[in-house]
User: What shape does this take?
Amino acid sequence: MAEVILVTGGARSGKSAHALALTEGYTPRVFVATAEAFDDEMRARIERHQAERGNGWETIEAPYDLPTAIESVKASSAAVVVDCLTVWLGNLLHRNPEIDENDPVFEQLSNALTRSQAGRIILVTNEVGMSIVPENALARNFRDLAGRINQRFATLAGCVKLVVCGQVITIKHEGCE
Assistant: This one.
């Protein structure tokens, strides 16, 4: 099984930068992008993320089929950054607002992670449960489901890191450097 690290925190907390730093010394480095550019603002965000990564990355776009993207990485020396689980979840909910934590896709992702031949997989996710209770059912479902899948993948990960204001706090130490 690959070394799995979950990096969580709020929006613009520094999660992605920390995840990228955790890939130093690994080759190849693979970035699994879950976002889709539906408008100019999102295109600009994606371009900014690409520039921050720089060269030396293979990019796999996986807005929906994240398990297959993980399984496609065969190099045992590879580091994989998945950015991010909550965007992926939003994509899934957009297609199927009735999805819940028992949907087979979450078990498929768990299985892909445990079978992975990569050296290290860093999962980036947003901590969305520290904010106000959303006013509509879809947003509440997203918040609740994000919390549940974050728990699931934090349990699977050997190391869990929380990023707050660019500062990294290790909250689960098994398998951390």
Helices lie at 15-21, 40-53, 66-71, 85-95, 104-115, 137-156. The two ends are 17 Å apart (CA to CA). The CA atoms of residues 84 and 124 lie 5 Å apart. The first helix runs from residue 15 to 21.
